[in-house]
Amino acid sequence: MYEQLVFAAEVFLNGLMAGVLYALVALGFVLIYKASGIFNYAQGVMALFAAMTLVGLMEGRIPFAHLINAIFGSNIHHFGWHLNAFVGLVLTMVIMLALAWLVQKVIFKHLVNQDGIILFMATIGLAYFLEGLGDLMWGGDIKKLDLDIPQGINLWIDETTFGMFGYGFFIDNLDIFATVIAALLVVGLIGFAQYTKQGRAMRAVADDHQAALSVGISLNFIWVMVWTLAGFVALVAGIMWGTKSGVQFSLSLIALKALPVLMLGGFTSIPGAIVGGLIIGVGEKLFEFAVGPMIGGATENWFAYVLALLFLVFRPQGLLGEKIIERV
Amino acid sequence: MLYRESGDFKTSYAEDQQTFPIKSDRYRYYVMLLIAFAVVPFFVNDYWVNAIFLPFLIYAIAAIGLNILTGYCGQVSLGTGGFMAVGAYAVYKLMTAFPDVNVVFHILAAGLITALVGIIFGLPSLRIKGFYLAVATLAAQFFLVWLFNRVPWFYNYSASGQINAPERFLFGQPVTGANTEPWVAYLVCLAFVALSAIVARNLTRGTLGRTWMAIRDMDIAAEIIGVDPLKAKLSAFAISSFYVGLSGALYFVVYLGAVEVGEVFGITKSFLVLFMIIIGGLGSIFGSFAGAAFLVLLPVLLKNVLVGTLGWQTDVAAHVEFMIVGGLIVLFLIAEPHGLAQLWRLAKEKLRVWPFPY
Known about the structure:
The structure holds two protein chains of two kinds.
Chain A: H1 2-36, H2 43-58, H3 65-72, H4 85-107, H5 116-138, H6 155-165, H7 173-195, H8 197-207, H9 209-214, H10 219-245, H11 254-265, H12 270-290, H13 292-295, H14 300-314
Chain B: H1 13-16, H2 23-43, H3 46-72, H4 80-97, H5 103-122, H6 130-150, E1 163-164, E2 169-170, E3 173-174, H7 182-204, H8 207-217, H9 219-224, H10 229-256, E4 258-259, H11 261-264, H12 267-280, H13 285-309, H14 314-335, H15 339-353
Antiparallel strand pairs in B: 1-4, 2-3
């Protein structure tokens, strides 16, 4: 029994860390949703795209090399340089900024005042487009992202817990690192939203588009800014997940994992995204640990959704979301 | 010229309300049906049936099903793949449990079972709306696929975890299994498609369809004028799932013959069918056909052009296809939210007065 409890505690801690990563992706959703009412399905693909771009730039791959080779029959792949990680990050941010601007200019400018569900479907289209574009630009192979982030078991925790419980917890350094970064990012974002001029403007837009417009806030600017912020969050999420499991297609599926997090926490609440992420992360790990072996395992695939679904039946606005008021 | 209304007088409401009110349109529809049933089977070969006709017909049923739910009742579902899997596994269990019963009844019964599952997963729709619901249907998608993957009873404890369609006969001809003639498979699917399209068309323009549309346009207002949202939403979920289950069953027994659930009925299938109805036209039976045809033909066409003619690698062509599909979705949502069906309607308006518009 004691052993079981210690195991459960380890699973709990690991779940907490996974939860932070889910929360990180969910944050990107909340940002865009609050400011523009767009439920951005493409967030996960943006993370994938950002990570791919970072790897591609750092390794000096030539964009669209496969396409160029296919059209002109040439055989080019690399520029033959290796970029510094910092330069790569800056360049990737520039590309994400351009992407945000394009998305706003080409797609969502034309869809202002449409139903939320139409916007949602448009982001699904965007997700497909970006997925194809990312693969076409940088190739569809699994890429290794190496930014010298510490990885592997944390020996200190292992030894300390061994001393305390007679059993060493296995906790990955990368997870700890990601947790710290995510926490910093969350604090930074909340600070930005609360204490800067742009942050205030962003909250004003989220509150009421027309009122914001009437006091001289440029909706277009705020939207591009929000998409850039979401791109930045996507980049961080992409780096963390990419370091963990390689930059590949499955990275875009973390967006699907973030959806139940959002539903649980409420679409409109940044603290909700964090709390939801932690609940889902811990819940699915503990469920898999306790019930999984009895019913065939791999319950992580659906547990989060079913939990969120059951939860929504009792509280449709989520844990911390604003109450949904319907008017005719 | 092409669409003449002069001399085509309606003397009763029934005539005025029929599906094809223009005479020349109606005859063209009969001719098309005749060609589809009596001419095409003599000319199709294995490639045409397996690459184009079967996927088109089967996806058309799924698209009609999703269109009933999303286009007519306004409840976006991302669980289509999961419900197709229910149809496939239900028909498999029925076929192996009752080998003497005709396969047509199995397919229909599989549809009914899927309808029941659809009602269960439709229950949350009474409380949650919009993309909350869309995400909730993802629960159905992931849970169902996991269920069929992990519970061995569903695949009869087979070692590979796959399900294989046993051979069944209809009028002495094999309709499932490896010995099926292409034209037989084609005719079976066509019969199902024709029937389901006619039923769907009549459902959507009757009382039930009107209540669905009332819910779609404004659910609170609909409730106030006396539409029961419980009945409307659950019936939409049930009927939609029936169609989707039907298509899943056909997809398995007639088209593929062997299915591994995670691969065939994954989330990409849900999106594919959703894209079909967006491109084809939300809230239109014709649109379901148009969208299915478009998204079945596009990859075949791109593959022929890019890989066959230009000699590109298949993966590059696949990436380009992703971009084109994604781009088209956005383009249609911006430029023509009612899809190909609306383009067709506009074209008909133009053709009515062509070549003398004034």
